[in-house]
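Page 47, continued from p. 46.
Same chain as before, 196 aa.
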Amino acid sequence: TQGDAKELTGEKRLKVFREMRRTDPIIGALIMAVKMIVRTVPWDPADPEGAEEGDTAVADAKTFLKSNMVDMSHPWAEFIDDSLDAVWAGFSALEIVFKQRLGYNPGSVTINRGTPEDPQTETVELASSDYDDGRIGWRKIAYRDPTGVSRWDIDKHGGVNGYYHRVEGQEEVYIPISKIILFRASRDGNDPNGYS
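Result:
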């Protein structure tokens, strides 16, 4: 009913939609059909508008982009599938995680997460790469469950600065817009939630 629909807002709305997707066979099948169709689309970078034939800078950029698409810790098709959560949730906000491309098993680094006065060091394994060119590439485009978005950080002009994400039992984490790829099923003004 219309009264029930008014109560479906925010996190509650997303949890209800997720449950419907998981338990209603018709809704689940429709969403799966959309995902399977989109996953079959070939994903080849196109030349930008106005690019001249034989432009080596464009060719190099396309080659680099393709190399990133196949050098992640998960397949490109999985990223496409994750982005399509926008079909049921209205949006999908994925996090870009970078790595330096240093070949296979590049070792580890020690990071100080404290201060010079109170060092709190941690050893972190560096991500492997099929490339050893030293460039910065994508380690992964990490899935972030839409139901975990607790709130958006919106500036005074309506622009998205980032969002706060919470996984059950863990602390809330801020993800800045510079690390987000935001997909919306349909726009509703500049509302990052979109609508489905």
